[in-house]
Amino acid sequence: MSSQPVPAPAPPLSRREQILAAAAELFARHGFHGVGIDDIGAAVGISGPALYRHFRSKDAMLGEMLTSISEILLEGGQSRAQRHRQPRSLLAELVRFQVDFALDNPALITVQERNLGNLTDPDRRRVRALQRRYVEVWVQAIQDVVEGIDEPSARAAAHAVFGLINSTPHSRYLDRGQMAALLRRMALAALTGTRE
Question: Source organism's superkingdom (predicted)?
Answer without folding.
Answer: Bacteria
